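Listing S7. Sequence submitted for prediction.
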Amino acid sequence: MDEKLFSARMAEYKSAVDKYLDACLEETQCASYHKLTDSMHYSLTAGGKRLRAILVLEFCRICGGDVEKALPMACGVEMLHTYSLIHDDLPVMDNDDLRRGKPSNHKVFGECTATLAGDALQALAFETVLKTDLPALRVLKCAQVLANAAGHEGICGGQQLDLEWEGKILSAPELEEIYLRKTSALIRAACLMGVAAAGGTKEQEEAAAGYADNFGFAFQLRDDMLDVIGDEKTFGKPIGSDREEGKMTFVDILGLSGCQRVIEAHSESAVEALGDMEDTDFLIHLVRVLEKREQ
C-alpha cells in the first residue's frame, strides 16, 4: 500500500477516535466528583496509537460496514484498554510511574482515584458500545466479545498470571499464555468487533481472529525488545522496567535477534490468516510498520 494513503487513513481514523473520546467526558467537567472524571479524561486523552480502535474501524470497513456508526464501538475498546493501563501501572500491579510519556494516572491523582477511574472507564466502555446505532444483535455480539476479552479469560487472567509468575523462570508456552491473554485478547476483540459491527461472515471472523492472534503476539514481543533497546522518550514508558520488576520476557529466552525473527514469522502468519479477504492492503501494511516500531 502506498505510504501516503496508509498514513492518511491512519490519521483519519485516529483523529475521529481522539475527537470522540475527548467529547465523552466534557459534560461531567463541572460535576461534584470531577476529580474522578478529570482522572478518566487524563488517561483517555493522553495519546497513544489508538491501534485497537483503528482495527475495529478497518475490519468494519473491509467487511462492508458503516465506519462512522462503528466509531462508538472503536472508542469503547479504547476506554477498556485505557482502564487496563491505569490498573497495570498501580503500585500493587506493575508499579510504573510513566505512561505514554506522562506521569501515570496514580502519580497525578492518587491510587484511590486512579483505581476508581479505571473502574469507571470499564463501565463507560460497555455503555458506549451498547448505545451504538447498529442492529441490536450486532451490538450484543460486540459487547459479548469485549466482555470475554476483559474478564478472566482475557486481560484479568493474563494479569493474574503475570503477577503469580513474577520472579520465576518461565517456559516459552507459559509466557505465550500471558501474552495471548494480556495483550492479544483485546486486539482479537477489536478485530472481531469490527467484523460483527459490519454483520460479517463466519469466514471473515476466522480470518480476523487469526490475524489478531499473530499480530498481538508479535506486537508484545516488540514491546519486550523495546523494554531493552528502546528510548524512554520515544517509547513513552521506563526502559528496563520488566527486569527491575523481576519479570521474564522472550528476550531472556530468545535474545533480541531471536525475538525479531519470531516477530517476522508471526507477522507473516497474520498476513496469511487474512486469506481471501478483499482490500486488506492497509492491514498488511500495518503489520509491516509495527514489526519495526520504536514506540
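Caption to Listing S7: primary sequence and predicted C-alpha cells for the chain studied. Residues 146 and 189 are 6 Å apart (CA to CA). The first strand starts at residue 98 and ends at 99.
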